[in-house]
Structure formats: structure tokens, C-alpha cells
Design a protein that fits this description.
The strands form 4 sheets. Strands 1, 2, 10, 11, 12, 13, 19 and 20 form an 8-stranded mixed sheet that branches. The protein is an alpha+beta fold and 350 residues long. It is globular and about 65 Å long. Helix 3 packs across helix 7. A hairpin with a 6-residue loop joins strand 19 and strand 20. The chain folds into 2 domains: 160 residues, FAD/NAD(P)-binding domain, CATH 3.50.50; 136 residues, 2-Layer Sandwich (D-Amino Acid Oxidase, Chain A, domain 2).
Length: 350
Amino acid sequence: MNRLYDALIVGAGLAGSTLAYRLTLAGRNVLLVSDPSIPSASRTAAGLINPVTGQRLVLQEGAEALLASAKHFYRGIEARFGVSILHECEMLRILCSEKEKQAWENRTGDPAYNAYIDHELYDHPDINTGYGGFFQHHTWYLDTNTILDTLHQWFREQEILIEAPLSYGDITIESDNIQWQTVQADKIIFCEGWRGEKNPWFDWLPFQPAKGEILTLSSDAPIPTYMINRGKWLLPTSEGVFKLGATYERGELNETATEDAKQELLDVLEHIFPGRPVTRVTNHMAGVRPGTRDKQPFIGIHPEHARLGIFNGFGSKGSLMIPWHAEAFTCHLIDGAPLPAQADIRRWHG
């Protein structure tokens, strides 16, 4: 800890861990600081990777590059550490209104969507498909807990992970480095999730965090092998076990699971599977998504403090977006390559 680090990274969720791993592979000396007493949204998230979202069925900008980067990064983790973290799983999207059905019909006429959505509607005798259902492709889910456990264990073995609280008041910005306790670093990069809105150096960025709750359920009745999305999503994870989520709450932000959210999710399940045998709730978790006003992440160096950076704001699309953006930020930090304009925090600095 007495050597000068290239980067001190604060926060070891999926964003901070991915950036730390990328920088380490690029030959940089990194120290990762994580407070184990602070809940991580990455630990709660289902890790869905879905390039076509919303009632208007909007294709994520740059979807092809984002998907390729995510797949390459996660498969690389699997190969190196002998774990299974990325699971391909098609999604049955249920149309809930004539408006949504019209959006689907419009998308089927757009060649950009050909690889992502089916042109035929699907029906199932046990599923309430509403105005029809269609399959989406190039959808996966990431086992976020396994990837974080794997990377954190490797960071410990490399002696580059400190599990301790960090106080902003203990950080000193010098002309030639950053100091925190006994640590000296060229830069400090904050990857704090939704709590980043309280960071005194980046509190001018327009975060829009939202709480979400997820259930884990088990059932003796058969479960489809594909995801189902009807405003909320159902994700099979193993035989007889599935996750159901997620709620969206902009009011009270905390990691406390609530009975109201639990009932909201169970009501959706009943609507998808009318008369389905009773399922058992085996886990109920809550987390806060680090969303932003323009739905784009916050990446870059502070406009007035060249030694302060941020890598945050991926919202509910972190599993898809983080690998590509971590590579772009790594290239920026090492080679001075330009940041993607839509993510660069300079867009919010007048």
C-alpha cells in the first residue's frame, strides 16, 4: 500500500470491479476500495441483457457493439476462472395493448430489428399473452453474484482489494497525486452506484435513482425455459426456480423489501399464469438503480479536478453497457482516447 497507484477505485459493484479488472489487465496498478456494510445494487440485480426495451420497443443505440463487448468480456472471465456466469435465454415479450402491438408491427418493418425480434406472434395455452406475444433474441442474463465473487477473490489474491469504509473527508487532492489514509494514487475513480449523487465533487450530475424489488420463487408446476416480459419479467434460473421483477419506485430510496412490492409482483405472476398453482417465495430483495436523467452513464474526469473521475449511472442496463464503456474509459485513461460523447460528463458542465 505504500506504492503509488495509477488509480484508486471506490466501489466494487459490477462497474467498479469491471473497470478495475480492465485497468489491471492493461498493466495499471489499481487499488479497489469497497465498504462491505453498504448494499450493492449489483448483488440484487438479475443481470438481464436485453437490447430492445420499453413500450415502444426501442433498440439500444450501438446494440451490436455493446452485445459483442459484453459477450467477449464475460466469456473471457468464464474461460480464465472456470465459472459459468453468462446464460443465453430467449425472451417472450407479451404485448399489453393495441399501442404496443402497433409498435411491434412497426418494428417488424424495420430491417434494424430483424436480428432481435420475431415477425410472428406466439400463443401458449397456459400463458395469458394479451394482445399477442413474440420472441426477442440476443437476450441473456448475467450471474452478477458469481462474477463479483470471482473477481473479488482474485483481487484479494493480488492484494488490491480493501474492504473498508471511505470518507470523503479523508481524501486529499495534491498537485501530483491523491491521498487517502496511507494510499497515494494518480487518480481516484468513483463507482459508487446511486450513492454517487451525494459525492461532493459530482453532486452536480443529474442522477435519477430508482428502487427496484425482486422475488425468487420456487414452484412444482412446470416453468418455461425462456424469459417472459409483461412489464415485469420472469426469469427461470434453474429447475423449478425463477426470479420475478422488478418494481420501480422513485420515492423512498433504500434497500428494504416491502410487502406492497411483493404483492405487486405476485399479482403480475397471476396475470401471466391465471390459476397457476401456488408458488413459494424463497427470497425477496431490494436495490436502488443508479439511473440518470438522460438514461446515459456518467463517465469522465472532473472538469476542475484532473485527478478525480467517475464511472457510474448505468441504471438497469449495467450488465449490457458496462464492459464496452469500461474499455472506452480504460483507453481514455491510458491513451487519452476520446470518451463516447453520449456518456462523457462534460455534457452536463455548462
